[in-house]
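Quick start: what a row looks like.
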Amino acid sequence: MTSIREEYERREKSFLSPLGCACLDSRGRRKAEAPCPVRTAFQRDRDRIVYSNAFRRLKHKTQVFLAPFGLGDHYRTRLTHTLEVAEIARTITRALRLNEDLAETIALGHDLGHPPFGHSGETVLREIYSSHFSHQKQSLRVVDKLENNGRGMNLTYEVRDGILKHSKGYGKIISSSPSKMAVTLEGRIVRVADIVAYLNHDLDDAVRSGVIRFDQVPKSVLEVLGKTHSDRATTMIHDVIFCSQPTLNGPIELKMSDHVYGEMAVLREFLYTEVYRSPRVHNEFLKAKKILLDLYNYFLENEKKLWEELIRMEMDRCHGEDAPKERIVCDFIASLTDRHALDLYKKIFFPAPAV
């Protein structure tokens, strides 16, 4: 008797573009598993991510603005950023007849390894642990090893590849380097969806916070991309969709029009100059870096306290006996939420009040 999953996989082959990655075409998992009778492999991966400890922690991790920054409840967190990326990725993949489930799953997992306090957390771990540390590599480490107390999630190859290759840093929005491109079109779309999301919501939050005024935004950006968050998102998403349509019997090449792509670059440069590197934002992140540096050194020197915390976080079985202590502490620090890091710092370094 045909299972629900098998029926869906059959229908999927009929409506997906041949250029998309059907579930039946997956390269599989590192450890073979019996298939689910209801969910496809990518749907199963999505559920594993959503129900993970690492995913829940995203709600208390900074996107750009620290929680005490005075923005109220409307500022973005790492979780809301992730949900926006997933929604944008689904819209684009659906329009191009690609695999929505795969794109959504990669998007939901792309920032699981991001340290607390935004990119300052990533910077400090790069400085004190390893120059090769990156949140995308740490995200892959989370799904492969750290989650489920050392068992990992055993995700499919395509999801793991998309998580590893989603980040562009300050590189090209649409990369032409094979080594930086995901093996699937869905993974490449997540990379584009990531920047579409953060360009829009970081501008939105920067104006809301008072770090910049709306009248400072370059006029060409507003004229081409739009004056509202909704208009800008719509312009960028539609531009990707309509410029990337496949030719007859030809491949899909992710592209954008010169004028939209150009204004996205202008907006990104504006955000880096006026927001991310602004004294007001930068000074807060210097404080955050100090907190993580002190915590890293403390737990490096206090192994008993480290293991007590790892047990609380269900991470005490993630490392073998020969694992370097620096690696263990790095995994611990990267897994902290902003709130947890602040609470630990107060508990460890602040004097206790007299009873």
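That is the whole record. The chain has a mean pLDDT of 93. The two ends are 70 Å apart (CA to CA).
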